[in-house]
Amino acid sequence: MARILVVEDDFGSRRMMQKLLEEYGHVDVVVDGEEAVSAFKMSTSERAPYDVVFLGIMMPKMDGQEALKLIRAFEKESGLSPINETRVVMTTVLEDPKNVIEAYFKGGATTYIVKPVDRMKIKSELAKFGIKPAERHN
Fold first, then answer.
1. What is the extent of the structural domain holding 14?
2. Can you give the CATH number for the domain in which 61 is found?
3. In a domain, 85, yes or no
4. What is the pLDDT of residue 101?
5. Do 92 and 115 touch, CB atoms closer than 8 A?
6. Is 138 part of a structural domain of the chain?
7. Pick from 33, 23, 27: which is nearest to 6 by CA?
8. d(Cα 74, Cα 80) in Å, to the nearest integer?
9. What whole-number distance in Å separates Cα of residue 93 and Cα of residue 99?
10. How far is CA 54 from CA 18, 33, 137, in A?
């Protein structure tokens, strides 16, 4: 069962992502980059790190680009090798080259999805990561 963090400032988008992802495992939801970094560090210290983070870019307090840099710095400080980094999927309406370059090459994003988020695209990305829907036990 996967551990997933959704970072999204828009309530409707947050709710939609949570519903879409809950079949894959435990989903935590936060509203900005500051909360994302805090939740990420807490999950790591509790030895229950996230398998994937869906991270919006445009958010109040701290944007997703800055949060991603802090998450990657924390992983590095913790001695995690780049091959074992948490997968981070940037989700945004911004599809301009500047943001793509910032997310991939400077920030270390795993992949980038342009909103509105497509259900099949999410399922495809999770499958690439080896994350499958959790089995239900009734």
1. 2-128
2. 3.40.50.2300
3. yes
4. 62
5. yes
6. no
7. 27
8. 9
9. 10
10. 10, 11, 26
Tell me if 79 is assigned to some domain.
yes
H-state helical runs in 46-113: 64-77, 97-101
pLDDT tens, 5-43?
999 998 988 999 999 999 999 999 999 999 999 999 999
Candidates 132, 5, 11; CA nearest to 71 is 5
Segment 80-111, tens digit of pLDDT: 888 889 999 988 776 666 666 665 555 678 88
Tokens matching residue 21: 């992802």
Q: Is the dihedral of CA 131, 129, 100, 109 positive or negative?
A: positive
- For the four alpha carbons of 121, 124, 130 and 135, in that order, the dihedral sign comes to positive
Residue 23 in domain: yes
Give dist(CA 82, CA 75) in Å, integer.
Answer: 8
Please tell me the predicted confidence (pLDDT) of residue 138: 46
Contacts of 79 (CB under 8 A, 6+ apart): none
Total domains in the fold of the chain = 1
pTM of the entire structure?
A: 0.89
Strand ranges (E), 31-127: 52-56, 87-92, 111-114
